[in-house]
Structure formats: structure tokens, C-alpha cells
Write a structure and sequence with these properties.
Distance between the termini: 63 Å
Cofactor: FAD
Enzyme class: oxidoreductase
Number of strands: 26
Number of domains: 3
Low-confidence stretches: none
CATH architecture of the largest domain: 3-Layer(bba) Sandwich
Protein name: CoA-disulfide reductase
Structural class: alpha/beta
Helix content: 25-40%
Family: Belongs to the class-III pyridine nucleotide-disulfide oxidoreductase family.
Radius of gyration: 23 Å
GO molecular function: CoA-disulfide reductase (NADPH) activity
CATH superfamily of the largest domain: FAD/NAD(P)-binding domain
Length: 448
């Protein structure tokens, strides 16, 4: 008898797992609920639509009817799943204020996460925005088209905040970035963040670090900062983080982990073996240390979808943990990270050493050679790689990918010297900067 599989939520988690299941099981009855109107869209592309790099809105969207037809999935948009009755193995869902019930054999939760929106005094929702969904993007785009703002305050200097700086600047809006931390992009170390900060200042971006937003006045146009300073802005972007949508899990007594996200096992099962979860709503172990982490990135969600689809069709492939490899662009710089930074290792009380190298991305005489800075953090005894950060204008993704792969393969930092990487003047130097990191690390560890 065909399994009845219910998926709650779309996008990178839910839509991907539904498609993966269908590829492996032609008989399963799959129903996908999403409370929004778009089951699959590119979150990461939204800043670039606002900034005009992505010209057409539809390029970010997957047509719901095409998806439903291709994968034979019963897709129900604008339908919110409001509760799980585990003992009856059914979910309750609401559409147009009517409540219905849907039975399941297996339930997959992919409700994602929501942008953090603190209850700030004086906030005017007509000029203060977050960017996490297509309606968020549409609201920002519409505001810009109608009001023609000249200035924007961006609260938060993480991925979204810095990507929005670039894209709003591209359409002529002057930006001020405000963050409570002493540096931008907390995923990198202070010295690497300094490179980003210098670049932002060179692009005439005003940075206000060690400060935060306390409240609004003047119908949301005046920002009162914790320091007592005042900023005027035609619009504000809140980019201060996300929180997993765990309401369904809480309401059905599914276990949450240390990070506040849903705890799952190596097959992405919750404490109820008939309920799986994936994506931005789950907590998974770190690949290197096993420490619980909540990592909201596309690669883990897609891999987790594959794990679940295999488990449902009889193949026990375990999810081995999340490494946290990520890359983003801010003006001319690419910033890439994987694994842990110094602050995270200090918190875990792990002893480490570090090695940095600054070089050209390709042969110096070949046009387009640009400076690339690499930093690798490794075990103080055996050279095990804990993390890496790469920043530059060219060749960043290649170097980060090599080091992330080395980490996955269990190579030590010294082994980087032995990697035989392809060379030609347009791409690298005979001894790639990654190789040089390995030689430097060997000297630090006394193993030259």
C-alpha cells in the first residue's frame, strides 16, 4: 500500500524533499502544505532583485503548478498547518478560516525560520522592513518604486545586511549600517572583518558598530540608538537574524535542542519516528566536534532532503553533520567561511593555532590578478583543520572549496602543502596560496 506522506512547508527543504521522494518512490501519495503562495523560491536571490541585478521577479520563483505536475505532488498553498495530532497521525490545517484534517503515515516538517522583529517603540511598518520571504521582497521593492528613498538604515551586519548595502547602493540609496557588535560579519575573525570594514568605508558606507537601535520617532523616520545618537533614514532594513519556526513542534511535544531548534537524529527523525524535520528549523551536530548547531544554509537543507527521502525508501544514509560553508558578496569583495572561527573555538575551550597568508589570486603578470587573504585555524597538536576564512576580489570560492573539502576528507593543515592543484596563469600561481598555508602551518607546528 502506498505511503501517505505529508510535508509542511516548501522552499529549499520541503519542496526538495518532496521531489527527492518522488524520484525514489513513484507510488507514494505526497501532499505539501505551505501557508504562503510560493512553494519554491530563491531566498538568496532576493537582494539582487531589489538591486536590479536580477531583472525579472519570476526568475526567483518556481511555478507551483509545474512543480505539482512534474513531481505528482498535491500542493496546497495559502494553507497553514496549525497542529499535529500525533496519536491520530493527522495534521489540522486552515484555509480561508476553515479548519480541515489530513492523515499521514509519515510527516515531514520544513516550516523554516522567521526574521527577528523586535517590538521597537515607534516602528512604522510602512517604512521598516525585513527580507526573508517573497512578500518581504515585494514590499521593499514597492516602497522604493513609490517613495524613491534617498537614505536607508540597515540594522545588522550579517549576510542579508551586507548584501542589501551593496544592492541598495547600486540603485542610489545612501546606507548606514548599525550593529551591536564590534565588527561586521561575526562569522569571521576580527582581523578578517577589518578587511570588509575598510572596503565598506571605501564605498562611502557609514558604519556604526558597538551600537544598536533602541526606538523610532517621527513616524519611523528618526532612529534613536543605544548610544544616544540619532539617525534620519527614509527606510530601515531589519537584518538582525532569524529564529526557527518551532510552534508546531512545541504544540505536539517534539523535542527541541540546545539551540532552540528541533532536535533530530542522523536520519532527520524527531523523537517521534514517524515525524521528520529539516532545513532552517532543525538543530544538527557540527561535523567536526558534534556540538549542536543551528545553521540556516541551502546546502544542509538539500542534503537533509536526500537523507530523508532515502530513509523513507529503505536506505539508511546518515547525515554526518553540518560544516557551515558559506560565501557572500559585498561590493567587489567575496567573503567565504567554513567551520569554526576563533570566538566559537574559545567558547568550546578548544586549543588552536592559526595561519594567514595574503597573495595574488593568479599570476601577477596576468590581467585580473587580485589580492586574496586566507586564514586557517587548526588544532594546536595534530593540525586538524577547524575552520577557514577567505576574502578577496578573485579566486575566493576556489580556495574555500579546496579547504572545505580537505576538512571533510580529514586532511590536516600540513597536508594542504601536498595538494596538487591545477595551475595556469589565468587561474593561480605554481604554488597556490592554499599550498603556502600548508607550508606556513608546518613551520608553526615544527614539522617542516
Amino acid at each position: 500500500m502506498a505511503k501517505k506522506i505529508v510535508v509542511v512547508g516548501g522552499v529549499g527543504g520541503g519542496s526538495t524533499v518532496a521531489a527527492q521522494i518522488r524520484r525514489m518512490d513513484q507510488e507514494a501519495e505526497i501532499t505539501l502544505f505551505d501557508k504562503g503562495g510560493y512553494i519554491a523560491f530563491s531566498n538568496c536571490g532576493m537582494p539582487y532583485y531589489v538591486g536590479g541585478t536580477v531583472r525579472k521577479r519570476e526568475h526567483l520563483l518556481r511555478d507551483t503548478n509545474d512543480f505539482a505536475k512534474k513531481y505528482n505532488v498535491d500542493v496546497r498553498t495559502h494553507t497553514e498547518v496549525i497542529s499535529i495530532e500525533r496519536e491520530k497521525k493527522r495534521v489540522s490545517h486552515k484555509k480561508n478560516d476553515e479548519v480541515f484534517h489530513e492523515p499521514y503515515d509519515k510527516l515531514i516538517l520544513s516550516p523554516g525560520a522567521s526574521a527577528v522583529k523586535p517590538p521597537l517603540d515607534g516602528l512604522n511598518p510602512d517604512r521598516t522592513f525585513s527580507l526573508h520571504t517573497i512578500p518581504d521582497m515585494d514590499a521593499i521593492y514597492s516602497h522604493i518604486e513609490k517613495i524613491k528613498p534617498k537614505t536607508c538604515a540597515i540594522i545588522g551586519a550579517g549576510f542579508i545586511g551586507l548584501e542589501m548595502v551593496e544592492n541598495l547602493t547600486a540603485i542610489g540609496i545612501n546606507c548606514t549600517v548599525i550593529d551591536r557588535s564590534s565588527q561586521v560579519m561575526k562569522l569571521v575573525d576580527e582581523d578578517m572583518a577589518g578587511i570588509i570594514q575598510d572596503h565598506l568605508k571605501a564605498k562611502n558606507i557609514e558604519l556604526r558598530l558597538n551600537d544598536g537601535l533602541e526606538s523610532f520617532k517621527n513616524n519611523g523616520a528618526t532612529l534613536m540608538l543605544n548610544s544616544g545618537k540619532v539617525i534620519q533614514a527614509d527606510m530601515t532594513i531589519l537584518a538582525i537574524g532569524i529564529k526557527p519556526n518551532t510552534e508546531l513542534a512545541n504544540g505536539s511535544s517534539l523535542e527541541l535542542g540546545e539551540t532552540g531548534a528541533i532536535r533530530v537524529n542522523e536520519y532527520m527523525q524527531t523523537n517521534d519516528p514517524d515525524i521528520y524535520a529539516l532545513g532552517d528549523v532543525v538543530e544538527t551536530p557540527d561535523y567536526l566536534t558534534g556540538t549542536p548547531r543551528h545553521v540556516a544554509l541551502a546546502w544542509p537543507a538539500h542534503r537533509q532532503a536526500y537523507i530523508i527521502a532515502n530513509h523513507l525508501t529503505g536506505s539508511e544514509i546518515a547525515y554526518k553533520g553540518t560544516q557551515g560553508s558559506a560565501i557572500f558578496k559585498v561590493f567587489d569583495l567575496s567573503v567565504a567561511v567554513t567551520g569554526y572561527n576563533q570566538a566559537a573555538l574559545d567558547e568550546l575551550d578548544i586549543r588552536y593555532k592559526e595561519v594567514s597568508h595574503e597573495a595574488l589570486s593568479r599570476a601577477g603578470y596576468y590581467p585580473g590578478a587580485e589580492k586574496v587573504c586566507i586564514k586557517v585555524i587548526f588544532d594546536a597538536k595534530d593540525g586538524r583543520i577547524y575552520g577557514a576564512q577567505v576574502i578577496g576580489e578573485d579566486g575566493v570560492h576556489k580556495r574555500l572549496a579546496v579547504i572545505a573539502t580537505a576538512m571533510k576528507g580529514g586532511l590536516s593543515v600540513i597536508d594542504l602543502a601536498e595538494l596538487e592543484l591545477a595551475y595556469a596563469p589565468p587561474y593561480s600561481t605554481p604554488k597556490d596560496p592554499v599550498n603556502v598555508i600548508g607550508y606556513k602551518a608546518a613551520k608553526i607546528l615544527g614539522k617542516e
